[in-house]
Write a structure and sequence with these properties.
The complex is a heterodimer of chains A (about 600) and B (about 210). Chain A is mainly α. Chain A has 28 helices and 2 strands. Chain B is an alpha+beta fold. Helix content of chain B is about 50%, strand content about 10%. Chain B contains 8 helices and 6 strands, in the order H-E-H-H-E-E-H-H-E-H-E-E-H-H.
């Protein structure tokens, strides 16, 4: 009788499972769409604006050595693991980790929370890209010249103190306030661009993989076309070679600096977008027999190659900009001397400048001494040394270089379209990480259609994103950019690796992969997953914690309009509280999830035992 | 000598002029000689005459001094009716401001390359269309995106209605027993094509209970 009961229960469970599988999971049309989606997600703005900065700071060409070592030791294994988990469990992040162990549902929730924070602030970058793109259809470009002051006798004061490109970014785009405390009003122009950016994202994710799969063909390939055009244009610019030589000369002594290795590890980690749940979401839409090992290697290699490719373009642009500024500086000095001493035009050139300066100092010492404070010492190295990263690089340095090119409108449009493609590609991954768990959960998915869920998520994010369009919005953006994802992701991926290796069991995972891919798992992956990657993540985590603790108060860069430059300020109390909340809300999900599951199981067991 | 005295005593009515001919014209630059100076004096006289009809300034009323290689010099305008006095600087300034364009064109130069050092030029404002260009582009892109979203949403709703109608038709057919899908235990046979249907875990365990022969 006991056997019969078990068989009936088994049949009932079996029929329930079959009914679930009848409503089949949407799939990518072909593996190419999956690879393109991963590339589109991983290759983002960080490849363009963070890697060249790191390359410059940590030893030029020599930085490639720690970068590749970290790619092989950390990047590829962790990427393969996430894709394999997603493909095996065929669920979003919450469901996948629940299958591995019910106590780990907190990991999935933490991933969703971090993705939510990321999508809140990341789309603002797309809004800025739209703003610059729409302003590229003018002649001359609006950031090429300073606007006139009120009585039209000269240029705006703030613009005179700084450059026209910086003025356009800080005043006309952001309208930035002097500090975080001064919130200011919502800028309606930025709010419009943000709304448009969210509408575009909604359009792409509206139909799930059906629409996303088509969009990623464009968002993955278009940036490469633009980068190639820029490579050709960049290498032919006057002075580009200066930049390339200066940046790529290896300074191998930087290899002994521990910060170099940590930056390489961090860059690989965040550049691939691990821990957000997007990769798991993308892989869950794969056929179970997809060869995710090959795809993981391809995606990580393409990601790193794109970083190097983008930095070649960036360094040639740097070289062009530095040479242009250096030559302008020299010309200004020449003009000053010509006017002061009434010398004939053309008598002072860049070549004889130094000798003439000495000659003038000897013949007219008093006038020369009066002029001395205005005579700047122009240096090409000083111009090349200005290392910029982040929005400063993308929107200030590049637009400055573009305004000096011929046919600047065309290059401007191409560049900002490329930024948009990179940004939207990453946004697709972020929203997939949020939406896949929502559409997987039966509670929500049965009641609301996919379009409504996506629409609600986009709407909520758009409303919250209006904070970043206020006058102090850029400061809040920096807070989110620096703190929302960094520590939490390290912890999430660490827990993921330990969970797969030790809780789920490496042997069991190996068997699953064997059934999926059909090949035996290479010993290399096993060693990396079990030992190398967790150790590396733990050391990164310890380093960042000690760094935060040692620096004491956190500071930020505020724009001072009266001086025309950035000044360092301390964060006020409530900003520090927000930072703490950001980090805590995602990391606390992991233990909380385990606790809630434990309590629930306890209650169920008590209920069952009282019934029996 | 006379002119020099004028420059010294009425420094506020004298103006320094600076020309950058080579910068403006490059290879087509002309040399600055006495003829060009004559043209300059003529232009200033013309400017004064245009400014106020009552003055009858002659070319001889405009005095140049201290011409350098830079090509820069000082000039004053004397008043012919009152001897040895110079026209007030404010009048000269206003006159030149009014006719700056004509003076520039006579020398093929611009405000930047023909500088009157005390007279700041009013910079031409940039041409601004009535609606900013960016709003137009924004409007176009916005309309396209919204149209695409509406199209996809409506198509999705129509698709779902069709699917619902199809599934209700299928249910009706099943009730009539006309469907040829073999069903076992309420589960269509195609989905049972897994190992779970063929191998029963309960029985394989029982086999081990018997000792092997």
């Amino acid at each position: 009788k006991h056997l019969q009961e078990r068989r009936q229960d088994g049949a009932a469970e079996g029929s329930a499972r079959q009914q679930e599988m009848e409503k089949s999971r949407p799939l990518w049309d072909n593996p190419v769409q999956f690879v393109f989606a991963c590339i589109s997600y991983a290759v983002g703005l960080g490849n363009v604006w963070r890697f060249p900065y790191l390359c410059q700071m940590y030893g030029g060409g020599g930085f490639l050595i720690p970068y590749f070592i970290m790619l092989i030791v950390e990047g590829m294994p962790l990427l393969y693991m996430e894709l394999a988990v997603g493909q095996r469990m065929r669920q979003g992040s919450i469901g996948a980790w629940k299958i591995i162990s019910p106590y780990l549902c907190g990991v999935g929730v933490a991933s969703v929370v971090v993705s939510f924070f990321l999508s809140m602030y990341y789309n603002v970058i797309n809004a800025w890209a739209f703003w610059y793109l729409f302003h590229s259809f003018q002649d001359p470009l609006p950031w090429a010249t300073c606007p006139l002051n009120s009585n039209r006798t000269g240029y705006e004061e703030e613009c005179e103190k700084t450059s026209s490109t910086q003025y356009f970014w800080y005043r006309q785009t952001l309208n930035i306030s002097p500090s975080l405390e001064v919130s200011g009003a919502v800028q309606w122009e930025q709010a419009l661009c943000l709304t448009l950016a969210w509408l575009v994202v909604y359009l792409c994710i509206l139909r799930g993989t059906e629409s996303t799969g088509k969009v990623v063909y464009v968002t993955a390939s278009l940036p490469y076309c633009v980068l190639i055009i820029y490579l050709i244009r960049g290498l032919t610019l006057h002075g580009a070679v200066n930049g390339l030589i200066y940046m790529f000369t290896p300074k191998l002594e930087q290899l002994s600096n521990p910060k170099t290795w940590i930056s390489a590890a961090t860059q690989i980690f965040f550049s691939l977008g691990l821990g957000f749940g997007s990769l798991i979401a993308f892989a869950s839409y794969n056929e179970p027999s997809n060869n995710c090992e090959r795809h993981a290697i391809i995606v990580s290699l393409i990601n790193s190659a794109t970083s190097i490719f983008a930095s070649i373009v960036t360094f040639s642009i740097y070289g062009f900009k530095a040479t242009f500024n250096y030559e302008s500086c020299i010309n200004k000095v020449i003009l000053l001397l010509l006017n002061a001493f009434d010398l004939e035009e053309g008598s002072l050139t860049a070549d004889n400048l130094n000798e003439m300066k000495d000659y003038l100092m000897a013949t007219h010492p008093q006038e020369y001494a009066q002029l001395l404070p205005q005579l700047k010492n122009c240096s090409l190295e000083a111009e090349l040394d200005t290392a910029v990263q982040g929005t400063g690089l993308a929107f200030i340095v590049y637009s400055e270089a573009i305004k000096n090119m011929e046919v600047s409108q065309l290059y401007s449009v191409l560049y900002f379209v490329m930024l948009l493609m990179l940004g939207i590609g990453s946004m697709l991954g972020n929203t997939a990480a949020i939406l896949t768990p929502l559409t997987d959960s039966k509670v929500i998915a049965t009641r609301f259609p996919k379009e409504v869920i996506s629409g609600v998520v986009c709407f909520i994010n758009c409303i919250i994103g209006l904070i970043f369009t206020m006058e102090a919005g850029n400061y809040w953006f920096d807070i989110f950019n620096d703190y929302a994802a960094t520590l939490s992701l390290l912890l999430i991926v660490l827990v993921e690796t330990i969970a797969v290796c030790y809780i789920y069991g490496l042997r069991r995972f190996e068997k699953d992969l064997h059934t999926m891919i059909g090949r035996k798992l290479n010993w290399y992956w096993k060693v990396m997953w079990a030992f190398a990657s967790p150790l590396l993540i733990i050391s990164l985590f310890i380093f960042y914690l000690t760094d935060y603790i040692l620096t004491g108060t956190l500071q930020y860069q505020a724009w001072d309009g009266t001086q025309g430059q950035l000044v360092t300020k301390d964060y006020p109390g409530y900003a520090l509280a927000v930072i703490g909340l950001l980090v805590a809300s995602s990391t606390m999900c992991i233990p909380l999830g385990a606790l809630v599951t434990f309590v629930r199981k306890r209650l169920k067991r008590e209920r069952v035992s009282t019934v029996a | 000598m006379f002119a020099f005295l004028l420059f010294v005593s009425d420094a506020q009515n004298a103006f320094k002029v600076r020309l950058s001919i080579k910068t403006a014209l490059g290879d087509n630059a002309y040399a600055w000689d006495a003829n060009e100076e004559y043209l300059f004096k003529a232009m200033v006289a013309f400017t004064m005459r245009r400014y106020s009809t009552k003055t009858t300034t002659q070319i001889s009323n405009v005095l140049l001094c201290n011409v350098t290689d830079r090509v820069s010099f000082w000039f004053v305008v004397t008043d012919s009716s009152k001897n040895t006095t110079t026209v007030p600087g404010s009048e000269v300034e206003a006159a030149i401001r009014m006719n700056r364009n004509r003076i520039n064109n006579a020398f093929l130069l611009s405000d930047k390359t023909l500088q009157f050092l005390k007279i700041s030029s009013t910079l031409a404002p940039p041409v601004e269309p009535s609606t900013p260009v960016w709003l137009i582009v924004f409007g176009v892109v916005l309309c396209l995106i919204v149209a695409a979203i509406v199209f996809l949403v409506v198509a999705g709703i129509q698709q779902r209605k069709k699917k619902n109608k199809e599934s209700t038709e299928r249910e009706n057919l099943e009730e009539k027993g006309e469907v040829t899908i073999t069903i076992e235990n309420g589960i269509p046979c195609e989905t049972l094509d897994l190992k779970a249907g063929h191998i029963n875990g309960v029985f394989s365990a029982d086999d081990e209970r018997f000792t092997s022969l």
